[in-house]
């Protein structure tokens, strides 16, 4: 081999290039990925940067953003440190959405995993039908589904007719489920140590109210509409498991329950973390069901950060406040994603 060719190969390795890869191939690679990169920059990175910039300015959402005036950290102070209606609304939105996440994500993840295991069984007839039926709510218009659930959860609706006892006012009930549970055992008023301390204009008793009855109805709708998508993700993970692993466990005498907990669940942990992450991201962005069913009521117990962004921008003409809320919601989502990645790395 000529000495010059060897020297060129060594230099290419030092520059991080594979020998034999022409510069033209790299140029074509960047050319083919350029449309996707431009799309990401225009529709993802640029809006995030503009929103972050607007969060430090006073903008009414009507005039050009470049005609807005800088206000520094005033928007964030008004939402986090200054007592008032906006801080109280933001605190209520965070509380409501936190209970929404805690209720929807575990329910949809568990239900989707169970359904995926069921439809993955070979002995089940009509598996294609069940997969389509479970997935169909996920592709149906969210507004149409919300309107259908509105009729179902009316006082004279089908849900109350199927449930025993007195009819429940599902769509106009601000009572928290935790408070209702405490009332059932005789605790009707807040203890002094929960009533006096306030965090962002809400007492600890209000923070610990639990989701309202109306929010619970919306959470039921969310679980029904999102389980199908999560089921398909779980189903893809289950079908990627090598059948020989389960067959070997069956030969060793492991029961179906043992195979599920000792083989299926451990092998599915990365998929479970992925589904949980998607669920957390989606639940922190809930808007359409709130808009169609409750519009933030009753008594702001279904108010969410995404819906608060809408009201601040389009009803109160406070574009800077809306941008600040959007930035903080993004920070919350990124924090949850980083935690999920850390947990996934530890599991691997």
Give the SSE layout:
Layout lengths: L2 H12 L8 H32 L2 E2 L10 E2 L3 H7 L4 H35 L7 H13 L2 H11 L5 H5 L14 H8 L7 H4 L2 E2 L2 E2 H4 L5 H27 L3 H9 L4 H12 L1 H15 L4 H6 L11 H10 L4 H29 L1
Antiparallel strand pairs: 1-2, 3-4
What string, H for helix and E for strand, traces the elements in order?
Answer: HHEEHHHHHHHEEHHHHHHHH
Described by the principal axes of the CA atoms, the overall outline is globular
- Structural class of the secondary elements? mainly alpha
β-sheet strand percentage: under 5%
Largest sheet: 2 strands, antiparallel
Number of beta strands: 4
- The mean pLDDT is 85
Radius of gyration: 26 Å
Briefly characterize the structure.
By secondary structure, the protein is mainly alpha-helical.
What does this structure look like?
- Helix content is 69%, strand content 2%.
- The protein has 17 helices and 4 strands.
- Helix 4 (85-119) packs antiparallel against helix 14, helix 5 (127-139) crosses helix 11 (213-239) and helix 12 (243-251) packs antiparallel against helix 13.
Features of this protein?
single chain, 348 residues, mainly alpha, two-stranded antiparallel ribbon, two-stranded antiparallel sheet, 17 helices, 4 strands, 2% strand, globular
